[in-house]
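Section: Multi-chain targets

For targets with more than one molecule, the full set of components is provided together so that the structure can be written out for the assembly as a whole rather than chain by chain. Components appear in the order listed by the source. The example entry contains two components.
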Amino acid sequence: MLNALGYENWALHALIWLPVLGMAHVLWAAEDRAKWLALRWSLVVFALSVGLWWAYDPALGGGYQLESSRPWIAAWGVNYALGLDGISLFMVMLTTFTTPLAVLGSFNYIKKRQKPFYALMLLLEVGVVGVFTAVDLFLFYVFFELTLVPMYFIIGIWGGERRVYAAIKFFLYTAFGSLLMLVGILYIYARGKALLGVTSFAFVDLLQIPLTPGEQMWLFGAFALAFAIKVPVFPFHTWLPDAHVEAPTPGSVMLAAVLLKMGTYGFVRFLLPFFPVAAQHPSVVTLMLVLGVVGIIYASWVAAVQPDAKKLVAYTSVAHMGFVVVGIFALNVNGLQGGLLVMISHGISTGALFLLLGMLYERRHTRLIDEFGGIGRVAPWLATAFVITALSSIGLPGTSGFVGEFLALLGVFEDHPGIGIFAASGVIFAAYYMLPMVQSVFFNALEKPENQAVQDLSRREVAILAPMIALMIVIGVHPTPLLRKMEPSVQMVLERVYAAAPPSAAVIESGRDVSGSEMAE
Amino acid sequence: MELDFSNQAHFIVALAPEIILAVWGIVILMVGVSSRRSEGPGESLDLGWLSLLGIFAATFANGWLYGVTEVGTHSMIALDGFALFSNWIILGGAGLSILISQSYVEKQGLQAAEFYALLIYSTVGLMVMVAARDLIVIFLGLEIMSVAVYVLSAINRRSRTSAEAGLKYFLLGAFSTGFFLYGIALVYGATGSTHISAIAESIASGAAHGALLMFGIALLAVGFSFKVSVVPFHMWTPDVYEGAPTPVTAFMSVAVKAGAFLAFLRVFSVAFTDAYESWWVILWWLTVLTMVVANLIATVQVSVKRMLAYSGIAHAGYLMVAIVAANESAAAGLLFYLLIYTLMNIGAFGIVILVSGQGEDRLEIQEYAGLGWRHPLLGLGFTVFLLSLAGFPGTGGFIGKVFLLQGAMEADLVYLSVILVLTTVISYWYYLRVAWYMWMRDPTLNAAASPIQVPVAMRLALIAGVILILYLGVFPGTTMELARSSVTALSAVGPGLIGLAP
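Its structure, encoded as tokens over all components, is:
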């Protein structure tokens, strides 16, 4: 049926342009209709994106499907080119899935200036879907930067008390990384023009350019910095707690569920295939693994002592992203697939956690853990939803969190058991920071009078949480279809990495090694 | 039609836009004189539209010249794509400046006839400058332009700051003119000619006197650096930009800077091509210095007008990258960037004029608090201008910056590119700061009490600016190709632009 509609020709374009139409509609309509319109448009986008699951056929190999390309800036060889593979498929669906829920979750939270808010949410969706579907590096960069503007305004206008500080910090941090990446992009392009006479930004063309190991190291550094800030990987994470805490609930949801994934997606999409020599250089691998593990452990410890529940969840994002990094730089199928699954499951469970915290905040106007207590008695469904989500976030077997972390750890243990041991400890720490929070919010004595009036989930809130919780469990119990869809593409990335001759240490040393050779094993 | 400059009459055709404008300036003066007795309230507006008519006529003539070719390249005036594209930029800058100055001229009670006539004369000077193939003619254009702008910046006789700005600009400008002229003399001494192709041939054949030539090039670089305000020759810029009437500042920051840059490019990439090795390092350092210093100082400004002055210097730094790179991409990038820079800077200054109300008060950033929610369209417009100045994707400023970076990459100037983007990150701070005041702060009582009226002319300028910036950001193709084909004219003159990449 999808074929009959020519679905594969227009689906990706529709996913990008429908929210744009929606934006115009929201801005055009009356203030009180804005939220319903935004919800409707984002649901339409989601409904359309569901077809991608069937339209993408892993049996055809791991390359791009549903490709379509139109010249955009002919003089530079820039194309408006979209495509989908087994990696981006899930990221796109995660985005279209999260957006309507985030919109629905902001119904009560966003009271003033609704029209611009919902328009910006839709713009954010445009940017993120664009990032995940672009197969032209220039187009990718444009979308990558485009996501900054709506997020800046969402945090800065509708955020908490220190919103301006958080918004600027978010913007400057991420812009810093991506601008250096821009230089890297243009460098590759210039090399392609000089060496092969190719003027193109298409991924497939750029992959043909023979870059020397030294160049790969530098470019790897530039790209890795951009994505590491976005992820965020351990020393670059300081913008994240601020942005998360100050952002309004839907902003945090989009940030955690989708925007962070742009960084790890960039790792898989660019760092590994574009710079294979650098990516498998022992010191680089060790550095990335160590940063991932440090991120897991450090963020867990910091999360454990947070008095503010939202900040706690923000730090868990850093920890989860550490798992993703560790999985990716295990450089084998299990690790990479695990990393991707963690990305998906983190998107769902952390998104749900932020929504739940938003619901608590709407009821009690505080996020301090000590202010709560015994909520489970007055709001059992809220408590149930929270506990399931928290367990999925910890990685309890049977939930989506477990599968991803398990595979990622499996991947690391194959080649780096030492790293694996430390990384695995993160699962325990996850329980250590999450469970006490759950306990003191929902299970301790119901002492405070304000807490006794807390209402249980409304129908709207059930509608938000039910699909998320269902997905957590479905993926946790039966992840095979997902793994099967992503496997060919993951294989392709790894083949590309290992097809490059393993770097001889001498070449790298004589070249310009930037990636901290003191970290070498 | 073909022009052969051995026939003197053909110069009239080649200089048609300049001549039309010069005559129009006299017409404006005469209309101003004859209507002075019956000075009515709407008088200055009429003169504004009348001057705009002259700009339109010149623009039309400029478009017509695309069908005309010249024979040979040895005339003093070039009729090439480069000159014509440059004229678009300059005429566009002048036209937009007139649009945004109308209400200002009226409110401040400036002498409209003199104001518009001087603006037109300086435009003529700029057009002569960018079309000149001879250092002496460049100097002529430079002086026509400068003298008019000296007066323009001091034109508000009741304002002390305006007088101060005029005097400062005049003194330092005269100084830089001295350098420039001395540079011409030395280059003439070294090569025996003031014609840029003849200079290029002389240098290429090795006949030029080395030391004299070096001195000459250095002095010319200093002269140009003054005019385009490159650090450390920028000292006059913030003061003059801040003190001069805002529309004049807008004009100076776009058209004057564009003209100076375009002449700079033509002289250095055509005449001094073969001496590239000796000058690029010096300009490289000046470029770095400009980008770093200007961006850092801009971050601490509290007056938006002064912030835009420093942002203008910072942009001079970005544009200098193209001069240092000196290849076809960079030169085309310079043209494209100047075009987009004209649009976004005029737009930003237009908003400054609107917010400042009667004249030069309310320039502080606090006055912009809540502007976006009080006047959503103005706020959106300013946000577009700021994002474009910051070089954000979706706006022309981004394409322009990528264009410059590509030029730099092709010339293997990787470090310079990195410095460019790092300083761009700094610039995000001060551009975003305005955006945050506009959208994330509540208006002050003072600001809320004074609603902003947007006159028709201003509205036209702002709308045109926003639309063109977004258009050039999303569909830059045609304009880029025009810019690229325009600079090929440069390589036809001398031995060609320097392309370090194979």
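Chain A touches chain B at residues 72-76, 113, 141-142, 145-146, 149, 152-153, 156-157, 163-164, 167-168, 171-172, 175-176, 179-180, 182-183, 186-187, 189-190, 193-194 (CB under 8 Å).
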